[in-house]
Amino acid sequence: MKMPKRVAAPHRLIAHICFLSSLLSATVPAQPPQAEPDAAISQTLQAMERAWLNAEKNHDVATFEKIVADDWIAITPDGKSQTKAERAAEIRNSHTVSATMGPMKVRVFGDTAVVTGTDDETTVENGKKSSDHYVWTDVFVKRNGKWLAVASQTAQIK
Fold first, then answer.
1. Domain 38-157 -> CATH class
2. pTM of the predicted model, to two decimals?
């Protein structure tokens, strides 16, 4: 005569589930690694913006090229698109004699951040001095652990 199969008692099944749960919880970290706080990202990006403005004022193309991605694209105050290479050539030949950064605001969305701000620039070209006020938006993306500007738009306030 065949014996009927034994059915595990519910309390044994519950004990096994509890044991497996405790085993899994011991091997999985309780919290994911902490991301860089938004305040630290804001400070980093504001410092990069100041370095960028100083690079433009001082004709420092190398610093500009470290801040912007190779595929960076900008919309200039006159509404035209500009590539990294085109902007680098402009920086090399610019007539900016002073530049002052205004207030900035940084909004962080994971590995993307939007920085808005203002600056005042003074140029001298052919003996003529001109002072202009600009508002701008720069979009940064964190690539391979490094923040890079990928897009910009600037407007001149008259």
1. alpha beta
2. 0.77
